[in-house]
Amino acid sequence: MLDRTLKIYIAGHKGMVGSAILRKFKSEKFQNIVLRTSDELDLRNQQAVQLFFEQEKPDIVVLAAAHVGGIMANIQSPAVFLYDNLMIQNNVIHFSYLNGVRKLLFLGSSCIYPRLAPQPMKEEYLLDGKVEPTNEGYAMAKIAGIKLCEMYNRQYETDYISAMPCNLFGYEDNFDSVSSHVVPALIKKYHRAKIEDLDRVEVWGTGKARRELLFVDDLADACLFLLENYHKKDFINVGMGIDVSIRELADLISCVVGYKGETIFDTTKPDGMPQKLMDVSRLSNIGWTFKTSLCCGLELTYQWYLENYNKFENNYK
Ligand code: GFB
After folding, report:
1. Could you give the CA distance from residue 288 to residue 226 in angstroms, rounded to a whole number?
2. Spans of the chain, pLDDT less than 70
3. Whole-angstrom Cα distance, residue 23 to residue 37?
4. For this structure, is 138 an active site residue?
5. For the chain, what percent of residues have pLDDT higher than 70?
6. Contact 13/59 with Cβ under 8 angstroms?
Protein backbone atom coordinates (compact mmCIF):
# COMPACT_ATOMS: atom_id res chain seq x y z
CA MET A 1 0.00 0.00 0.00
CA LEU A 2 1.25 3.49 -0.80
CA ASP A 3 2.20 5.65 2.14
CA ARG A 4 -0.56 8.28 2.47
CA THR A 5 1.99 10.96 3.41
CA LEU A 6 3.88 10.75 0.11
CA LYS A 7 3.82 13.91 -1.97
CA ILE A 8 1.71 13.29 -5.06
CA TYR A 9 1.46 15.63 -8.03
CA ILE A 10 -1.70 15.11 -10.10
CA ALA A 11 -1.13 16.86 -13.43
CA GLY A 12 -4.42 17.82 -15.05
CA HIS A 13 -6.66 17.80 -11.96
CA LYS A 14 -9.23 20.12 -13.54
CA GLY A 15 -10.04 17.68 -16.36
CA MET A 16 -12.46 14.77 -16.25
CA VAL A 17 -9.75 12.17 -15.57
CA GLY A 18 -7.57 14.24 -13.24
CA SER A 19 -10.52 15.39 -11.15
CA ALA A 20 -11.70 11.79 -10.73
CA ILE A 21 -8.20 10.78 -9.63
CA LEU A 22 -8.10 13.69 -7.18
CA ARG A 23 -11.47 12.61 -5.68
CA LYS A 24 -10.16 9.07 -5.35
CA PHE A 25 -6.91 10.13 -3.67
CA LYS A 26 -8.74 12.43 -1.27
CA SER A 27 -11.18 9.67 -0.36
CA GLU A 28 -8.18 7.40 0.28
CA LYS A 29 -6.79 10.01 2.71
CA PHE A 30 -3.68 11.06 0.82
CA GLN A 31 -2.52 14.10 2.75
CA ASN A 32 0.05 15.74 0.51
CA ILE A 33 -1.37 16.34 -2.95
CA VAL A 34 0.19 19.01 -5.17
CA LEU A 35 -1.98 20.66 -7.81
CA ARG A 36 -1.57 23.40 -10.41
CA THR A 37 -4.15 24.69 -12.87
CA SER A 38 -3.02 25.25 -16.45
CA ASP A 39 -3.10 29.01 -15.77
CA GLU A 40 -0.69 28.54 -12.90
CA LEU A 41 1.60 26.12 -14.74
CA ASP A 42 1.67 25.69 -18.52
CA LEU A 43 2.99 22.14 -18.86
CA ARG A 44 4.09 22.86 -22.43
CA ASN A 45 6.61 25.35 -21.08
CA GLN A 46 9.86 23.57 -20.30
CA GLN A 47 11.31 26.22 -17.99
CA ALA A 48 8.12 26.51 -15.99
CA VAL A 49 7.93 22.74 -15.55
CA GLN A 50 11.59 22.56 -14.57
CA LEU A 51 11.10 25.22 -11.89
CA PHE A 52 7.94 23.55 -10.59
CA PHE A 53 9.65 20.16 -10.15
CA GLU A 54 12.76 21.69 -8.57
CA GLN A 55 10.60 23.52 -6.05
CA GLU A 56 8.02 20.84 -5.27
CA LYS A 57 10.03 17.58 -5.60
CA PRO A 58 7.01 15.25 -5.64
CA ASP A 59 7.48 11.56 -4.77
CA ILE A 60 4.80 10.36 -7.18
CA VAL A 61 3.39 11.86 -10.38
CA VAL A 62 0.09 11.05 -12.07
CA LEU A 63 0.19 12.45 -15.59
CA ALA A 64 -3.48 13.00 -16.47
CA ALA A 65 -2.90 16.35 -18.20
CA ALA A 66 -3.49 16.21 -21.94
CA HIS A 67 -5.07 18.06 -24.80
CA VAL A 68 -8.13 15.86 -25.43
CA GLY A 69 -11.28 15.90 -27.52
CA GLY A 70 -13.71 13.85 -29.54
CA ILE A 71 -13.47 12.75 -33.14
CA MET A 72 -14.24 16.18 -34.63
CA ALA A 73 -11.75 18.08 -32.46
CA ASN A 74 -9.09 15.55 -33.42
CA ILE A 75 -9.86 15.96 -37.12
CA GLN A 76 -9.88 19.76 -36.91
CA SER A 77 -6.62 20.32 -35.05
CA PRO A 78 -4.25 17.34 -35.38
CA ALA A 79 -1.16 19.52 -35.02
CA VAL A 80 -2.34 20.86 -31.66
CA PHE A 81 -3.10 17.34 -30.43
CA LEU A 82 0.37 16.16 -31.41
CA TYR A 83 2.35 19.21 -30.29
CA ASP A 84 0.63 19.96 -26.98
CA ASN A 85 0.66 16.36 -25.84
CA LEU A 86 4.28 15.75 -26.82
CA MET A 87 5.36 18.90 -24.97
CA ILE A 88 3.31 18.13 -21.85
CA GLN A 89 4.50 14.54 -21.52
CA ASN A 90 8.14 15.22 -22.46
CA ASN A 91 8.39 17.96 -19.85
CA VAL A 92 6.60 16.11 -17.07
CA ILE A 93 8.36 12.77 -17.61
CA HIS A 94 11.84 14.27 -18.07
CA PHE A 95 11.69 16.59 -15.06
CA SER A 96 10.19 13.82 -12.97
CA TYR A 97 13.28 11.79 -13.75
CA LEU A 98 15.70 14.67 -13.08
CA ASN A 99 14.03 15.35 -9.74
CA GLY A 100 13.96 11.81 -8.43
CA VAL A 101 10.25 11.03 -8.79
CA ARG A 102 9.89 7.45 -7.53
CA LYS A 103 6.86 6.45 -9.50
CA LEU A 104 4.97 7.99 -12.41
CA LEU A 105 1.71 6.93 -14.01
CA PHE A 106 1.23 8.03 -17.62
CA LEU A 107 -2.27 7.91 -19.07
CA GLY A 108 -2.80 7.16 -22.75
CA SER A 109 -5.74 5.97 -24.81
CA SER A 110 -6.97 2.93 -26.72
CA CYS A 111 -6.52 4.95 -29.94
CA ILE A 112 -2.82 3.98 -29.85
CA TYR A 113 -3.73 0.65 -31.48
CA PRO A 114 -3.81 0.05 -35.24
CA ARG A 115 -7.11 0.99 -36.88
CA LEU A 116 -7.71 -2.58 -37.99
CA ALA A 117 -6.22 -4.37 -35.01
CA PRO A 118 -7.79 -7.76 -34.19
CA GLN A 119 -10.40 -7.40 -31.45
CA PRO A 120 -10.17 -7.44 -28.49
CA MET A 121 -6.88 -5.55 -28.67
CA LYS A 122 -3.98 -6.98 -26.69
CA GLU A 123 -1.10 -4.80 -25.50
CA GLU A 124 1.26 -6.59 -27.89
CA TYR A 125 -0.63 -5.27 -30.96
CA LEU A 126 0.93 -1.81 -30.50
CA LEU A 127 2.65 -0.65 -33.72
CA ASP A 128 1.45 -3.65 -35.73
CA GLY A 129 -0.25 -1.35 -38.26
CA LYS A 130 -1.37 2.19 -39.12
CA VAL A 131 -3.42 4.10 -36.57
CA GLU A 132 -6.87 5.58 -37.27
CA PRO A 133 -6.33 8.76 -39.36
CA THR A 134 -8.97 10.82 -37.50
CA ASN A 135 -6.86 10.71 -34.32
CA GLU A 136 -3.36 10.20 -35.69
CA GLY A 137 -1.87 13.25 -33.92
CA TYR A 138 -3.20 12.22 -30.52
CA ALA A 139 -2.28 8.56 -31.02
CA MET A 140 1.29 9.39 -32.08
CA ALA A 141 1.78 11.55 -29.00
CA LYS A 142 0.46 8.83 -26.70
CA ILE A 143 2.63 6.16 -28.34
CA ALA A 144 5.65 8.44 -27.82
CA GLY A 145 4.64 8.81 -24.15
CA ILE A 146 4.51 5.04 -23.65
CA LYS A 147 7.91 4.67 -25.27
CA LEU A 148 9.40 7.50 -23.23
CA CYS A 149 8.33 5.78 -20.01
CA GLU A 150 9.62 2.41 -21.23
CA MET A 151 12.98 3.83 -22.27
CA TYR A 152 13.48 5.86 -19.08
CA ASN A 153 12.81 2.64 -17.18
CA ARG A 154 15.28 0.77 -19.37
CA GLN A 155 18.06 3.37 -19.26
CA TYR A 156 17.55 4.96 -15.85
CA GLU A 157 15.80 2.18 -13.92
CA THR A 158 12.83 4.37 -13.09
CA ASP A 159 9.39 2.95 -12.27
CA TYR A 160 7.21 4.79 -14.79
CA ILE A 161 4.08 2.88 -15.76
CA SER A 162 1.56 3.59 -18.54
CA ALA A 163 -2.16 2.82 -18.49
CA MET A 164 -4.24 2.79 -21.69
CA PRO A 165 -7.89 3.43 -20.89
CA CYS A 166 -10.71 2.75 -23.30
CA ASN A 167 -13.12 5.63 -24.09
CA LEU A 168 -14.11 7.34 -20.83
CA PHE A 169 -17.08 9.34 -19.62
CA GLY A 170 -18.37 10.78 -16.37
CA TYR A 171 -18.36 13.86 -14.15
CA GLU A 172 -16.60 17.03 -15.38
CA ASP A 173 -16.69 15.86 -18.99
CA ASN A 174 -16.64 18.37 -21.87
CA PHE A 175 -20.21 18.92 -23.12
CA ASP A 176 -19.33 21.15 -26.06
CA SER A 177 -21.39 20.15 -29.12
CA VAL A 178 -18.45 19.98 -31.52
CA SER A 179 -15.34 19.06 -29.53
CA SER A 180 -16.85 16.60 -27.04
CA HIS A 181 -16.78 12.82 -27.04
CA VAL A 182 -19.83 10.77 -27.90
CA VAL A 183 -21.35 10.28 -24.41
CA PRO A 184 -21.56 13.96 -23.37
CA ALA A 185 -22.56 14.90 -26.92
CA LEU A 186 -25.49 12.48 -26.89
CA ILE A 187 -26.57 13.35 -23.34
CA LYS A 188 -26.75 16.97 -24.41
CA LYS A 189 -28.54 16.23 -27.71
CA TYR A 190 -31.18 13.94 -26.18
CA HIS A 191 -31.73 16.25 -23.22
CA ARG A 192 -32.23 19.25 -25.47
CA ALA A 193 -34.57 17.26 -27.74
CA LYS A 194 -36.62 16.19 -24.71
CA ILE A 195 -36.92 19.75 -23.39
CA GLU A 196 -37.75 21.23 -26.80
CA ASP A 197 -40.03 18.33 -27.72
CA LEU A 198 -38.11 17.61 -30.93
CA ASP A 199 -39.15 14.66 -33.15
CA ARG A 200 -35.68 13.42 -33.91
CA VAL A 201 -32.05 13.45 -32.79
CA GLU A 202 -29.16 13.24 -35.18
CA VAL A 203 -26.27 10.96 -34.25
CA TRP A 204 -23.01 11.08 -36.22
CA GLY A 205 -21.83 8.21 -38.39
CA THR A 206 -23.46 4.91 -39.28
CA GLY A 207 -24.15 3.83 -35.69
CA LYS A 208 -22.17 0.67 -36.41
CA ALA A 209 -18.84 1.75 -34.90
CA ARG A 210 -18.22 0.01 -31.59
CA ARG A 211 -16.73 1.54 -28.44
CA GLU A 212 -15.80 0.29 -25.00
CA LEU A 213 -16.80 2.88 -22.41
CA LEU A 214 -15.59 3.08 -18.81
CA PHE A 215 -16.99 5.34 -16.09
CA VAL A 216 -14.17 7.70 -15.11
CA ASP A 217 -14.39 6.97 -11.37
CA ASP A 218 -13.58 3.35 -12.18
CA LEU A 219 -10.53 4.52 -14.09
CA ALA A 220 -9.44 6.52 -11.03
CA ASP A 221 -9.81 3.39 -8.93
CA ALA A 222 -7.68 1.46 -11.44
CA CYS A 223 -5.02 4.20 -11.38
CA LEU A 224 -4.51 3.87 -7.63
CA PHE A 225 -4.57 0.08 -7.97
CA LEU A 226 -1.82 0.25 -10.62
CA LEU A 227 0.32 2.67 -8.62
CA GLU A 228 0.17 0.22 -5.73
CA ASN A 229 0.41 -3.07 -7.61
CA TYR A 230 2.12 -2.62 -10.98
CA HIS A 231 5.85 -1.96 -11.31
CA LYS A 232 8.30 -1.37 -14.15
CA LYS A 233 6.33 -3.42 -16.65
CA ASP A 234 4.92 -2.87 -20.11
CA PHE A 235 1.92 -0.60 -20.50
CA ILE A 236 -1.45 -2.02 -19.55
CA ASN A 237 -5.01 -1.74 -20.91
CA VAL A 238 -7.74 -0.44 -18.61
CA GLY A 239 -11.36 -1.10 -19.53
CA MET A 240 -14.38 -3.27 -19.04
CA GLY A 241 -13.65 -5.73 -21.82
CA ILE A 242 -17.18 -5.10 -23.19
CA ASP A 243 -18.17 -2.83 -26.06
CA VAL A 244 -21.39 -1.48 -27.59
CA SER A 245 -22.31 -0.11 -30.99
CA ILE A 246 -22.97 3.62 -31.21
CA ARG A 247 -26.59 2.73 -32.08
CA GLU A 248 -26.89 0.71 -28.84
CA LEU A 249 -25.24 3.51 -26.91
CA ALA A 250 -27.63 6.09 -28.40
CA ASP A 251 -30.61 3.91 -27.42
CA LEU A 252 -29.27 3.58 -23.88
CA ILE A 253 -28.69 7.32 -23.49
CA SER A 254 -32.08 8.27 -24.91
CA CYS A 255 -33.64 5.85 -22.42
CA VAL A 256 -31.63 7.28 -19.48
CA VAL A 257 -32.61 10.82 -20.50
CA GLY A 258 -36.23 9.82 -21.09
CA TYR A 259 -36.46 10.97 -24.70
CA LYS A 260 -39.27 9.36 -26.69
CA GLY A 261 -38.54 10.55 -30.25
CA GLU A 262 -36.62 9.05 -33.16
CA THR A 263 -32.85 8.68 -33.67
CA ILE A 264 -31.39 9.17 -37.14
CA PHE A 265 -27.81 8.66 -38.28
CA ASP A 266 -25.86 11.28 -40.23
CA THR A 267 -23.63 9.11 -42.40
CA THR A 268 -21.80 12.16 -43.77
CA LYS A 269 -20.06 12.31 -40.37
CA PRO A 270 -17.11 9.99 -39.66
CA ASP A 271 -17.27 6.73 -37.71
CA GLY A 272 -13.58 6.78 -36.84
CA MET A 273 -12.17 3.44 -35.79
CA PRO A 274 -14.64 0.63 -36.61
CA GLN A 275 -14.13 -1.01 -33.22
CA LYS A 276 -12.12 -0.29 -30.10
CA LEU A 277 -12.44 -3.14 -27.64
CA MET A 278 -9.54 -3.96 -25.39
CA ASP A 279 -8.30 -7.22 -24.02
CA VAL A 280 -8.13 -6.49 -20.29
CA SER A 281 -6.79 -9.85 -19.15
CA ARG A 282 -3.40 -8.43 -18.12
CA LEU A 283 -5.23 -6.15 -15.66
CA SER A 284 -7.80 -8.68 -14.48
CA ASN A 285 -5.01 -11.21 -13.90
CA ILE A 286 -3.44 -8.89 -11.33
CA GLY A 287 -6.79 -8.39 -9.61
CA TRP A 288 -8.65 -5.32 -10.92
CA THR A 289 -12.04 -5.22 -12.55
CA PHE A 290 -14.62 -2.47 -13.19
CA LYS A 291 -17.36 -1.69 -10.67
CA THR A 292 -19.82 0.55 -12.52
CA SER A 293 -21.99 -0.86 -15.31
CA LEU A 294 -22.40 1.26 -18.44
CA CYS A 295 -26.04 1.96 -17.66
CA CYS A 296 -25.33 2.98 -14.08
CA GLY A 297 -22.43 5.21 -15.19
CA LEU A 298 -24.68 6.90 -17.76
CA GLU A 299 -27.35 7.54 -15.13
CA LEU A 300 -24.79 9.08 -12.74
CA THR A 301 -23.40 11.23 -15.54
CA TYR A 302 -26.83 12.44 -16.65
CA GLN A 303 -27.64 13.31 -13.02
CA TRP A 304 -24.42 15.28 -12.79
CA TYR A 305 -25.24 17.04 -16.06
CA LEU A 306 -28.66 18.07 -14.73
CA GLU A 307 -27.11 19.40 -11.54
CA ASN A 308 -24.41 21.32 -13.38
CA TYR A 309 -25.84 22.22 -16.70
CA ASN A 310 -26.12 25.96 -16.17
CA LYS A 311 -22.37 25.73 -16.71
CA PHE A 312 -22.95 24.44 -20.25
CA GLU A 313 -26.50 25.44 -21.08
CA ASN A 314 -27.19 29.00 -20.08
CA ASN A 315 -30.24 28.95 -22.32
CA TYR A 316 -31.79 26.00 -20.52
CA LYS A 317 -31.83 27.02 -16.88
O1 GFB B 1 -16.37 9.79 -28.68
P2 GFB B 1 -15.83 9.98 -30.04
O3 GFB B 1 -15.69 11.38 -30.51
O4 GFB B 1 -14.44 9.27 -30.03
O5 GFB B 1 -16.77 9.22 -31.08
P6 GFB B 1 -13.58 8.23 -30.89
C7 GFB B 1 -17.11 7.88 -30.93
C8 GFB B 1 -18.10 7.46 -31.99
O9 GFB B 1 -19.35 8.11 -31.71
C10 GFB B 1 -17.74 7.84 -33.42
C11 GFB B 1 -19.87 8.66 -32.90
O12 GFB B 1 -18.08 6.77 -34.27
C13 GFB B 1 -18.62 9.05 -33.68
O14 GFB B 1 -18.93 9.23 -35.05
N15 GFB B 1 -20.75 9.80 -32.59
C16 GFB B 1 -22.08 9.85 -32.86
C17 GFB B 1 -20.41 10.97 -32.04
N18 GFB B 1 -22.59 11.03 -32.53
C19 GFB B 1 -21.58 11.76 -32.02
C20 GFB B 1 -21.50 13.10 -31.49
O21 GFB B 1 -22.46 13.85 -31.45
N22 GFB B 1 -20.27 13.49 -31.03
C23 GFB B 1 -19.18 12.67 -31.07
N24 GFB B 1 -18.01 13.11 -30.59
N25 GFB B 1 -19.23 11.41 -31.60
C26 GFB B 1 -11.72 9.80 -29.97
C27 GFB B 1 -10.36 10.13 -30.50
O28 GFB B 1 -12.19 8.91 -30.90
O29 GFB B 1 -11.72 9.11 -28.73
C30 GFB B 1 -9.41 10.55 -29.47
O31 GFB B 1 -10.49 11.02 -31.56
C32 GFB B 1 -9.46 9.73 -28.20
O33 GFB B 1 -8.13 10.55 -29.99
C34 GFB B 1 -10.85 9.50 -27.75
O35 GFB B 1 -8.79 8.52 -28.35
C36 GFB B 1 -10.97 8.53 -26.59
O37 GFB B 1 -13.51 6.96 -30.13
O38 GFB B 1 -14.00 8.09 -32.29
Report:
1. 9
2. 312-317
3. 16
4. yes
5. 98
6. no
